From TrEMBL:
Pfam family, one: Gln-synt_C-ter
UniProt-listed Gene3D superfamilies: 1.20.120.1560, Glutamine synthetase/guanido kinase, catalytic domain
GO molecular function: glutamine synthetase activity
Database matches in SUPFAM superfamilies: Glutamine synthetase/guanido kinase
Signal peptide stretch: none
SMART domains registered for this protein in UniProt: Gln-synt_C (SM01230)
Residue ranges of every copy of the GS catalytic domain listed in the record: 182-614
Name the record gives this protein: Glutamine synthetase type
Family in the record: Belongs to the glutamine synthetase family.
Gene: Fc_277211
Length: 695
């Protein structure tokens, strides 16, 4: 059937040029060719005395690096690539304007003494690179006088090829091995999860010999707006969000954007097709595409997989989105809140834990069948409930991206209160278990009967969906819904893995000491039950109730970042070998500086826009709040000066937050009032109408 379908596609493609352009089928047989993995890699590895099995043991970097390098070289040349780079993710990198990865691109050749071109790409070139560690955010871990940094190949994520370059996923550390990047702590947290997940799973009767890993699927939201209008917005160009702008008369009133047709009349569909095409060539399964809730807002979702691969793919997907959008006359906005009063963008981080052979810890039937232990699933869930309750502060810290300031709690994303939704069915099961029942979990089934013959009654899951919860369980996975669209989600997953690993370790220690697993789980559920909340998280009364019950709530992102170095959290990360105390303090400083830098750019941009656009428009038109605008410039400059004068990273960030969320919001209102009265022909900035309505 597949062959037939292919033949059919082939025929369609050859027969209809316009259909081919629209349906994006051209690269079908090229899908996956630009990732050095599986069958594609095997073909090249075989020629050099290795095979795809060679790549399964990370120790190939010591035993077979030359063979692999030769295979990679041939594979690259066949794709027209002759350049390589070690490709890394600097600390606190986020996706507002190409900021996501670092790379130095090198030719894979040299001249020999006869000036013949020969291969200059060996095993040792492939597995390690050296670079400058001081020019990236490092929180004091490196200096210009002690700048050495190293790039080491990450065997868990495959090499990618795009254009003339191959990208070697790498960890980036200082001369002393301190993590300067997003990937290193993630890899360490994977090791902790593997170790303690395997211990617990084995004690519960399961087979963990294949190893334990976290799987994630990252839904990527974004805006695509007309590029000519984007060039009329210095704020979007420089900071990724509109710092001013009166609402358009139309917004989300009709609920007519979400999942609406991806109209071929605009370039958005063609752009999304090309983005998918590029991604599929590189083995990145960008499966789902649709419009999102706000005008000109869209989403892509891949098929989930192991976290290092998914995160590497996601940072590439974000780059491809930006670049391909430009080719289609569009600008992609990945920032969390580009526009006021319409929805912002998130990146739902779907997360599950599984054996590498595929038994999902979060799928009750799989766990019970594998372990032959009816209580095993409840024990795992109890450990996770305890982890969320105890370490919700870290989950909050991990989503404290500057753009998320405008989303969390604004009734489009869950509030900054870290509860979890388990659903009625699962909750009553765990409650019964907590109170002594040892029955196994039997998910309820539900039949929907529409009362028609034509649509037959059908089965639906027992659980509803709760889109107001920051961390709902969805049967087989948790979905961290508060994550920001621009984030590199490594820290998010580092936190999830570490807090799970710690609880798995604590449970395993006690079981090994002779305690009964179910008793430990019951005790944990009793202690941490408050964190389970199935109701409406947008409701203010509920928020009050959750806050009073002691569920972690940290409204300020700046304050949330500060929890990285509390005594509890340093102990946690050190115990799990994920971060040292020094690395945590450095990272905290970097995140605060990142926040401050973001706000400073926004404030300076606002000053320029008022001086260069708003004031001239108001003068020209002889309407509007001229004096207030002039005073605003003074206020903004004083605000920036005050930040500069502050001593520590955290002090600066705290002042920046007030400037951004109080002062700048007041000043924006003055600018927007001016926009309301200035005649259109005198208004020089692109308006929300021009930015948000592509078609
Ligand atoms: P929804 O609207 O329910 O959030 P989407 O299709 O938009 O669904 O996205 C769901 C994401 O979750 C996809 O990336 C999918 O691959 C991923 N996912 C599904 N199951 C799992 C799992 N067990 N572990 C991790 N991610 C998963
Ligand atoms: Mg989702």
């Amino acid at each position: 059937a597949a062959v037939k379908a292919l033949a059919r596609r082939e025929a369609t493609r050859n027969s209809s040029v316009s259909f081919r352009a629209m349906a994006n089928l051209a690269a079908y047989e090229d899908f996956g060719k630009n990732v050095f993995a599986g069958k594609v890699a095997d073909e090249y590895l075989q020629k050099h005395g290795a095979s795809k099995a060679t790549l399964d043991d990370p120790n190939w970097v010591n035993t077979d690096a030359d063979k692999v390098a030769n295979a990679v070289f041939d594979w690259a040349i066949d794709r027209g690539a002759n350049v390589y780079c070690h490709w890394f993710q600097p600390m606190a990198s986020s996706g507002v304007r190409h900021g996501l990865t670092g790379q130095v691109q090198n030719m894979m050749f040299k001249f020999n003494s006869d000036y013949e071109v020969v291969q200059d790409f060996k095993g040792k070139t492939l597995i390690k690179g050296e670079t400058d560690g001081s020019s990236f955010p490092n929180g004091g871990l490196r200096g210009t006088h002690c700048a050495g940094g190293y790039l080491a190949l990450d065997t868990s994520s495959p090499i990618l090829c795009r254009g003339d370059t191959i990208f070697i996923p790498s960890a980036f550390v200082s001369y002393y091995g301190a993590a300067l990047d997003e990937k290193t702590p993630l890899l360490r947290s994977n090791a902790a999860l593997d170790k303690h997940g395997a211990r617990l799973f084995t004690l519960l009767g399961g087979d963990a010999s294949s190893g334990i890993q976290a799987n994630i699927g990252l839904e990527q939201e974004m805006f695509l707006i007309p590029r000519d209008q984007y060039y009329r917005r210095p704020d979007l160009q420089l900071t990724g969000r509109t710092i001013m702008g009166k609402n358009a008369p139309r917004g989300q009133e009709m609920c007519d954007h979400y999942m609406a047709p991806l109209s071929s009349a605009t370039s958005a569909l063609a752009a999304m097709q090309e983005m998918q095409d590029e991604c599929w060539r590189m083995g990145m399964p960008l499966k789902t595409r649709h419009r999102e809730v706000a005008p000109n807002q869209f989403e892509f979702a891949p098929l989930f997989g192991s976290n290092t691969t998914q995160i590497d793919q996601n940072v590439f997907i974000m780059q491809i989105i930006e670049e391909v959008a430009a080719k289609h006359g569009l600008a992609a906005l990945l920032q969390e809140k580009p526009f006021n009063d319409v929805n912002g963008s998130g990146k739902h981080n779907n997360w599950s834990i599984a054996t590498s052979s595929g038994i999902n810890f979060l799928a009750p039937d799989e766990v019970i069948e594998e372990t032959g232990n009816d209580e095993a699933f409840a024990v795992i869930m109890a450990a996770l409930v305890a982890a969320i309750d105890e370490h919700g502060d870290l989950m909050r810290a991990a989503i404290a991206n500057p753009g998320n300031d405008f989303r969390l709690g604004a009734c489009e994303a869950p509030p900054a209160i870290m509860s979890t939704y388990l659903g009625d069915d699962m909750t009553s099961y765990l409650e019964a278990f907590m109170n002594g029942s040892s029955a196994k979990y039997e998910p309820g089934t539900k039949t929907l009967d529409l009362g028609t013959k034509e649509v037959m009654p059908f089965q639906v899951p027992a659980e509803d969906r709760n889109r107001t919860s920051p961390f709902p369980y969805g049967g087989a996975r948790f979905e961290f819904r508060s994550v920001g669209s621009a984030q590199n989600v490594s820290l998010v997953n580092t936190v999830l893995n570490t807090i799970a690993a710690e609880k798995f370790a604590a449970f395993a220690d006690r079981i090994e000491a002779g305690e009964n697993p179910a008793d430990i789980a019951r005790e944990a559920l009793k202690k941490h039950w408050k964190v389970i909340f199935n109701g409406d998280n947008y409701d203010v009364e509920n928020q009050k109730m959750l806050t009073e019950s002691g569920v972690w709530r940290i409204d300020s992102g700046v304050e949330a970042i500060s929890v990285l170095s509390t005594e509890k959290n340093v102990a946690l990360f050190e115990k799990m070998n994920v971060f040292t105390g020094t690395e945590l303090t450095a990272r905290q400083d970097v995140l605060h500086d990142h926040y401050t830098g973001t706000v400073e750019m926004e404030a300076l941009c606002m000053i320029d826009m008022i001086n260069q656009h708003v004031i001239p428009s108001v003068k020209e038109s002889e309407v509007g709040p001229l004096d207030e605008l002039a005073a605003s410039i003074t206020t903004l400059k004083a605000g920036v000066a005050e930040i500069h004068a502050a001593e520590s990273s955290v002090d600066k960030a705290q002042l920046a937050r007030v400037l951004r969320l109080e002062t700048m919001i007041d000043i924006r209102a003055i600018c927007d009032a001016a926009e309301e009265v200035v005649p259109a022909e005198n208004w020089t900035l692109a308006t929300y109408k021009e930015l948000l309505f592509l078609d």
